[in-house]
Design brief:
Length: about 120
């Protein structure tokens, strides 16, 4: 008679972004490199601000829905920050607002919602 044994299963690898994606049930895994910029008010009046775009970093969209993207970044972002997201071929060039943030040592998991519709972003069947 054979002996019973247990096999160790591979531990499910979970990233900070995957943890955040649990709150977005429609999120699909993807891997799209992007450049992340944020507009900052540097001068002017509240009614007529002068904006300056600051390149924060390059990162990768890890999950997406029809209206949101989820990614990790080293830059500490806050709820309602407005970002510009661009990929290398320009097919994604859109402003998005931060709707969720989870801080982790060395990284920030971010969910940002598009401010306008993005044609041909995610096609649902």
């Amino acid at each position: 008679m054979g002996q019973a044994g247990t096999a160790k299963a591979k531990a499910a690898q979970s990233s900070a972004v995957a943890d955040l994606a649990r709150f977005f049930p429609e999120a699909m895994p993807m891997r799209i490199p992007i450049q992340l910029t944020r507009s900052l008010t540097v001068d002017g009046t509240p009614a007529n601000p002068v904006l300056e775009e600051t390149v924060l970093e390059e990162t990768v969209i890890e999950f997406g829905t029809a209206r949101e993207v989820l990614f990790a970044c080293a830059t500490p972002l806050e709820f309602a920050d407005v970002l510009m997201l661009r990929n290398s071929d320009g097919s994604l060039d859109i402003k998005a607002s931060v709707v969720a943030v989870q801080y982790h040592p060395g990284a920030t998991a971010v969910a940002a919602r598009f401010l306008n519709s993005v044609p041909n972003w995610i096609v649902k069947s």
